[in-house]
Design a protein that fits this description.
Layout lengths: L5 H14 L2 H17 L3 H10 L3 H18 L3 H13 L6 H13 L3 H20 L5 H21 L3 H15 L14 H17 L3 H18 L2 H12 L1
Helix pairs in contact: 2-3, 3-4, 4-5, 4-6, 5-6, 6-7, 6-8, 7-8, 8-9, 8-10, 9-10, 10-11, 10-12, 11-12
């Protein structure tokens, strides 16, 4: 494998568009996408799949890799561009792809757009849950997960009373951190850390420091488990406050 300077790489890609027959170019890009995916380089694989017009492969890669791109690697702008290209190619994308699309908007502070996408996404999910979808339990779980994003957006809009109320209700449902025993297959550490941070932020701003410290301690435990830089940074900021 050769790593090329981006300008030179762009030149070669341009030449390929001009000189190769479309069918040959698509074949090369499909092979490149498959190779990169097998090699664990899913971002490169996704670029090749989209460049080659293989929207089905791109949708599959995004559905499998969305949490890594958005939550772990912070490819927010790049992820938004990928999903837009996928939609432009006529592929809606899976539930995970669209869930993390809303997260990427929130991370980029595009809160009003995130709120609008969240409303559309929730409506689609609720219709699917009520319909004949065989994966109803998983869809209900995703409905619960989008409440986490809603809480984060409410913080940005300074709806702090709603943040504390909704965070408390959500955490009670996790059977963790509120005096309950954890259930198998419960919420992810990332989600628990996020909601705990939100509650701690609201409590600190309300001057309820004992409650804020309790939430920050809970958030610190789950942020460490999630090994997420955003969560750890948020914990540090609220703790300092």
């Amino acid at each position: 494998r050769h790593r090329l300077h981006n300008v030179f790489r762009g030149f070669l890609l341009d030449q390929a568009r001009q000189d190769l027959a479309p069918a040959v170019r698509k074949q090369v890009l499909d092979r490149a996408a498959d190779y990169c995916r097998e090699d664990g380089r899913c971002a490169d694989a996704l670029d090749y799949a989209l460049d080659g017009g293989n929207a089905a492969l791109a949708a599959d890669i995004l559905e499998q890799s969305s949490p890594v791109f958005v939550r772990d690697l912070g490819y927010h702008g790049r992820y938004l561009a990928w999903v837009r290209r996928l939609h432009a190619a006529g592929e809606e994308g899976g539930w995970e792809t669209n869930y993390w699309y809303i997260w990427a908007l929130a991370f980029r502070r595009r809160y009003e757009q995130a709120r609008a996408e969240l409303a559309r996404f929730a409506e689609r999910l609720e219709l699917a849950v009520k319909g004949q979808d065989r994966d109803r339990a998983r869809l209900a779980t995703i409905l619960r997960r989008i409440e986490v994003i809603r809480i984060v957006i409410d913080i940005s809009a300074d709806h702090l009373p709603a943040v504390r109320r909704n965070a408390e209700q959500w955490l009670a449902g996790t059977d963790r951190g509120m005096g309950h025993v954890a259930k198998a297959g419960a919420d992810s550490a990332f989600e628990i850390a996020t909601v705990s941070c939100a509650a701690g932020y609201r409590d600190a701003n309300a001057g309820e420091l004992k409650a804020a410290r309790a939430m920050v301690r809970l958030a610190a435990v789950y942020s460490a488990q999630a090994d997420n830089a955003y969560g750890l940074g948020w914990v540090a900021a609220i703790d300092a406050q």
